[in-house]
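Batch manifest, entry 17 of 40.
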Amino acid sequence: MLLADSAQVADGKLYILGGGWSVTGPEPVPSAVVIKVGVDVPEFNSEHHWELFLEDADGRPVSFETPDGVQPIEVRGDFTATEPLGVPAGTPVDVPIAVNFGPIPLAPGARYSWRLVVDGESLPGAQASFATRPTPLV
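Output type: structure tokens
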């Protein structure tokens, strides 16, 4: 996982703009979470469900006010990987995922983490942490 200013997936590749940061703000800015999931042969042709959660430094869900009430910041999706043609048998497949967000109002001077869960399991390395800068003193 990687944090970026923006990202997209095209032709099975990740195109990343402003990637690799771990400090942002304090003002809200657009951002993206870039994910590359490695799928091994036994998992081919099966549907997989992923969930991405924004959590504070204590592991609590981060929420914000919407017209429908307070909502946690989370995204869900599904993917399926198939055996690539023309490559040696047993070759794993990378599944690229790019999730873009508009400006998210976060508290200045705080730590946060995006946590990825695939098929109900938190995977090793499936977390991207960052901090917001404190509000400048005037």
